[in-house]
Every structure is written in C-alpha cells, then in structure tokens.
C-alpha cells in the first residue's frame, strides 16, 4: 500500500560539504583518521571492560554500552560520508535513507536513556554509597540497559510511523551527508506542517527534556559532593565533568536540529559532525587517558596477551 506512495523518488542525492577540492581532501583525511580512532578506541573499551574482572562494575558496564552505541552511531554515517567524499558519487537509495533514519533514532534514543542511567548510577554511587551494591546489582543493570534499547526502538518506530505516509514527487537533494528526518520531510510534496510538529514534539522535546533532566541531576550530584568535600572530591569531579562534557556535546546538536528542524541556513550538517565524530571519540579519549583504573586494566590485559604469545 505504501509502495505506490513513494515510487516516484527512488534515490536521494547528498549535497555534502560542497566546498573546494582542497577542503574536501582535508575532510576526507580528517574523517578517515577520526573514524579509525573511534572504532579502535571504543572497541578497546568494550574489550577491556568485558575481559578484565576488575572492571566488572555497573559504571564500566554502562560505559562499555555507551561505547558500543557510539561506535555504531559513527558507523551508520561516517563510512558513507568518507566513500562519498572519495568517489564524489553522493547517492543513497530510498530504502537506504529510511534504514539510516530508523537506526539513527534507535541508537540516539537508546543513548539518551543510557546517559540517564549513567547519571542515576553516579547519583547512587555518590549520594547513597551504602545502597550502591544492592540497588545497582547485575539484574538491575541488565534491566536498565535493555530498557534503553526498548525505548530507543519504540521512539524510532513512533517517529517512522508518521513518515511512511509522506509523498515524494521530485525534489531529492539532501543538504547534508546523511539522511535524517528534518531533511527528509523537507523534500516531501505533501503538506508537512503536521509532520514538522510531530518531529519537533517527538525528537525535539525528548532531547530537550532529557538534557535538562541530566544537567539538573549532575548539578545535584556536584552540590552533594561539594558539601561533603571529602577525599573523593577530585575523583568524583573528574568523572562527573567527563559525563557532563559528553552530555552537552551530544545533546547540543540534537536539540538544535530537532527544535528548529527547518532552518533557512543549514548548519545542521556541521553540528551533526559533533554527534557522529566528536562525542564518539570523547569516551575513549576521556576514559583511556584520564581514568587510572582503565589505564591499569589496559596494561594488565596487554601483559597477559604478550605472555600468551610468548608461551604459545
Ligand atoms: C552492557 O551492559 C550489560 C548490563 O550491565 C552488560 O551485561 C553488557 O556486557 C554490556 N555490554 C557491553 C557491550 O559491554
């Protein structure tokens, strides 16, 4: 039934960063290097947390889950962008575009819920330390992580349910390097006013609400830490500032893109770089360079691996 609706447009063209040749070469080198670091760094975190029993705690499990999502968020958009920059052939099929939008919102929605879970984890660890181990037990952890995925999935299905009714009849140029709802809806020939409202309501309000919730909870935790002002202060501060940086950089672009989904000047694509290339690099950067437990675990694992090779 929907087939007939969108048969007129079978592919979309990305305008990408239509700049001069040298700028494109720079972008190609920059995004390739970043992507390699993103994949290796996040894989390292997932690997170390999975295989080092010292890191089998809720905080690190959640961190590994965040790395897993970040890596996929990048993989969903950056390799396509790299290949487009390389070949100059910037086309995506209708189905490809729909899949990108769908997966993007599953991952994005899950990441938002996961960030709330991480804030909750820090809140209990810092403000209710005596209850930490009983509240954040492995079962609760798995429940929270599965909850994040289910909510992401529901959000994405709800979002896409509005979009399947759209009618495309000609314009197919997307002023970006990936498909997302605001860009996609802009191309539809049907009256999109209601649709724009839905996108703003669903994605925009959710990102804004989650953002303020997170900022308030971090301020609350910081005040608690500051009042107590005991030995753990600097350690808590470094963990919390890392979380807050990730939250601000992740939500900033989301809020902008979805609260003002149809701006006249397209800055969306530049902001999107923050979400697909900068936040995914922050986790590995922050946690492998600044976190002592993580660094020790990496050393321990590499020594074990070296020994394995020596004796085999
Ligand atoms: C995600 O979190 C769950 C629950 O704590 C954990 O069992 C799982 O190993 C984590 N996933 C990754 C990729 O680390």
TrEMBL record:
Residues 41-287 form the G-protein coupled receptors family 1 profile domain. SUPFAM superfamilies: Family A G protein-coupled receptor-like. The chain crosses the membrane at residues 26-48, 60-78, 98-120, 141-168, 205-225, 237-258, 270-289. One of its GO terms (cellular component) is plasma membrane. It is a multi-pass membrane protein. It is found in: Cell membrane; Membrane. The gene is OR4F87. Its main location: membrane. It holds the Pfam family 7tm_4. Belongs to the G-protein coupled receptor 1 family. Putative odorant or sperm cell receptor. Keywords: Cell membrane, Disulfide bond, G-protein coupled receptor, Membrane, Olfaction, Receptor, Sensory transduction, Transducer, Transmembrane, Transmembrane helix. It comes from Equus caballus (Horse). This is Olfactory receptor. GO terms for molecular function: G protein-coupled receptor activity; olfactory receptor activity.
């Amino acid at each position: 039934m929907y087939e007939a609706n969108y048969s007129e447009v079978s592919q979309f063209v990305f305008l990408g960063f239509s700049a001069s040749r040298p700028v494109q070469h720079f972008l190609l080198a920059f995004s390739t290097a970043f992507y390699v670091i993103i994949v290796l760094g996040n894989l390292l975190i997932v690997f170390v947390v999975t295989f080092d029993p010292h890191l089998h705690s809720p905080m690190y499990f959640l961190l590994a889950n965040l790395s897993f999502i970040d890596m996929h968020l990048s993989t969903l958009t950056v390799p396509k962008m790299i290949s487009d920059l390389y070949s100059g052939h910037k086309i995506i099929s209708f189905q490809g575009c729909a899949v990108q939008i769908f997966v993007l919102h599953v991952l994005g929605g899950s990441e938002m819920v996961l960030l709330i879970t991480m804030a909750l984890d820090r809140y209990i660890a810092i403000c209710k330390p005596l209850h930490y181990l009983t509240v954040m037990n492995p079962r609760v952890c798995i429940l929270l992580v599965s909850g994040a995925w289910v909510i992401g999935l529901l959000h994405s299905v709800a979002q896409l349910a509005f979009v399947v009714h759209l009618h495309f009849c000609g314009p197919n140029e997307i002023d970006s390097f990936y498909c997302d709802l605001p860009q996609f809806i802009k191309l539809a020939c049907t009256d999109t006013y209601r649709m724009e409202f839905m996108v703003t309501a669903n994605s925009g309000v959710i990102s804004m609400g989650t953002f303020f919730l997170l900022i308030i909870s971090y301020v609350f935790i910081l005040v608690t830490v500051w009042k107590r002002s005991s030995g753990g202060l600097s350690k808590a501060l470094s963990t919390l500032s890392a979380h807050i940086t990730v939250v601000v950089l992740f939500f900033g672009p989301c809020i902008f893109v979805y609260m003002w989904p149809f701006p006249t000047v397209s800055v969306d694509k530049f902001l999107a770089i923050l979400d697909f290339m900068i936040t995914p690099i922050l986790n590995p950067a922050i946690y492998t360079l600044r976190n002592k437990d993580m660094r020790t675990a990496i050393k321990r694992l590499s020594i074990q691996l070296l020994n394995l090779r020596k004796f085999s």
